[in-house]
TrEMBL record:
The keyword Signal applies. Residues 1-25 form the signal peptide. It comes from the Bacteria. The keyword Signal applies. Keywords: Signal. Residues 235-258 are annotated as: Disordered. This is Carbohydrate-binding domain-containing protein.
């Protein structure tokens, strides 16, 4: 895997520039799409070689193309990343796929792959808390080295996101064999310029998603961590300052929503008709 060095100055510039971009979740009613039925069984390897891209493309988006098809036993999905911004955000925060035949509980269970270097920090609660709260966290070389090392592990395990109460997410990491036991398959191509992801999900209710209906809610999301930067903390060497008539003044800290958008947070839902 090509090593991608983290650089704080580049990150800071990227943060400021990308904050001007708008990556909102779709508003209004969710569209219904009928993907094509297939008689071929694709090899799940993270490659589009077995896909008729013209027929199976269900959602062309800026930076991501979504493909889907199905047969009597399985639903097949392919997510193709087409921009460096989306590739970077997915390597950091992971790509979560939600599937459910219950609209009210459609985000109850999600599978994240790659898991994302930010999410891997969750395995060390103390480090993760510092990551969420310290305004100068990204200025420390040791932290950047840690993120670089974690990025090499984002394809090693799968992130499971559960919302037992329908709201608050809980996170766990599992080996790929855990989801393959029930017939689900997932594969990624991480050798190309950008990531691509391919999934096979049984329609009989046996998968981790548990859906078995013909009306399926499909959600795709990049969910960034819930930063809680301490705006009342003392000056930090990395804080932006401006000199005014009253001396050094601290710049307004970015809001959580601004941070999330700049890091590529998004959520896209579509209803699949598998009749």
């Amino acid at each position: 895997m090509i090593r991608r060095k983290f650089n704080f100055n580049v990150f800071a510039l990227f943060f400021l520039l990308s904050a001007s971009l708008i990556f909102f979740a779709a508003c209004g009613s969710t569209s219904t799409i009928t993907p094509p039925e297939t008689s071929d069984t694709p090899v799940i390897d993270g490659s589009l070689s077995d896909w008729d891209t013209g027929e199976t493309l269900i959602m062309p988006e800026e930076g991501i193309n979504y493909y889907a098809r199905y047969d009597e036993q399985n639903l097949y999905l392919f997510i193709e990343i087409t921009s460096p911004f989306r590739d970077r955000t997915i390597r950091q925060s992971g790509l979560i796929v939600y599937l459910s035949d219950n609209e009210e509980e459609r985000n109850k269970t999600g599978v994240g792959y790659p898991s994302g270097s930010f999410n891997l920090l969750r395995e060390n609660p103390a480090v993760f808390n510092d990551f969420l709260t310290e305004s100068d966290w990204f200025s420390k070389p040791a932290n950047l080295d840690m993120l670089e090392n974690l990025e090499e592990q984002i394809f090693d395990r799968i992130l499971i996101v559960e919302r037992p109460d329908g709201r608050n997410p809980e996170y766990a990491f599992v080996d790929q064999t855990r989801i393959e036991v029930d017939g689900m398959q997932i594969a990624a191509d991480n050798r190309s310029r950008y990531i691509s992801l391919e999934l096979k999900i049984p329609r009989n209710g046996d998968s981790i998603y548990g859906f078995n209906g013909n009306d399926v809610w499909l959600g795709l999301a990049v969910e960034t961590p819930s930063f809680r930067i301490n705006t009342d903390s003392d000056y930090s060497p990395t804080m932006d300052r401006q000199r005014g008539i009253y001396g050094n003044q601290r710049q307004r800290q970015p809001r959580r929503q601004d941070i999330s958008r700049s890091l590529g947070e998004f959520e896209k839902w579509v209803r699949l008709d598998l009749r």
